[in-house]
Specification:
There is one protein chain. By secondary structure, the chain is an alpha/beta fold. It contains four helices and eleven strands. It has one domain: Purple Acid Phosphatase, chain A, domain 2 (4-Layer Sandwich). The strands form two sheets. The chain has a six-stranded mixed β-sheet with strand order 3-2-1-9-10-11, with no helix packed on it. β4 and β5 form a beta hairpin. The chain is globular. The protein starts with a strand and ends with a strand.
Length: 186
Amino acid sequence: MRIGVISDTHGSLQAWQRAMERCFGGADLIVHAGDICYHGVRNPMPAGYEPLRLAEALNGCPVPLLVCRGNCDSEVDQLAIDLPILSPCLLLELEGVRVLVHHGHRFSEEEVERLVGRWRLGVVISGHTHVPRLERRGKVLLFNPGSPALPKGEEGPTVGTLEVSRGRVVARLHELEGGSVLRELA
């Protein structure tokens, strides 16, 4: 199973389209870790800022899309998007691997560690920082795909993918411009 992993689009239709075209080909599922439409008061408007058109693109996404709420997402955004976007987290089981998706602003590192044990998680996906993170801590894979719209890491605009098969996970961080893999962790 191939999963596209994205966070912090902040209203950039251009960032979404590039991720779909360059990185998410063949995806069976896409997860969005929040901050979908609004750029936030402390962020500049990203290139391609068209939140209503981004909402329409999400509504027409040909791949199943699951979204959790970011700190910039609101009930007014939900009016434009036809799928649930206001859940504080998602708990998925993919090919025998339990995955927690959350934005990253609600749960502390300690709370995430407790949830890892309680729910026997294999992967934790977050966003919020706009800085990619791909690391293994014990038996859990921690994955932040960065931001395709307002990157704060040295890698520039990024998204991620997961390949999950029979309990095995391979996570990849992709640079957005060409879609090439920057880092990989199995």
